[in-house]
Amino acid sequence: MPAGGVRPVRQAAVTRAELMRAVQARVGVSGAQASVLVDQVLGALRDAILEPGGEPVKISGFGTFFVRQKGERMGRNPRTLEDVPITERRVLRFRCSQILRQAINEEAE
Hints:
By secondary structure, the protein is an alpha+beta fold. It has helices spanning 16-28, 31-50, 98-108; strands spanning 57-59, 63-70, 73-76, 83-86, 89-96.
């Protein structure tokens, strides 16, 4: 817990509509154009992540998205304490850049 014993207020997630409004304000385009821009960027990011071969997607100054293969393992149902097999799967991971990490830590000070 932070100093003073006060927990920070949890903020709601940033929505697609909020991203669109931010692009609209910063770039100076219409709402429809901002919506298309946000959709295109998110679509390109999604396509790059899903591309066969599993290469990491690096965005300079922001971070790296990569897909990781997790093997099959045994888990436990916390309600019944019954052992349950968890199948192998692919998971999306994100590692922020050093620049973003420094900006986060500067903001916290």
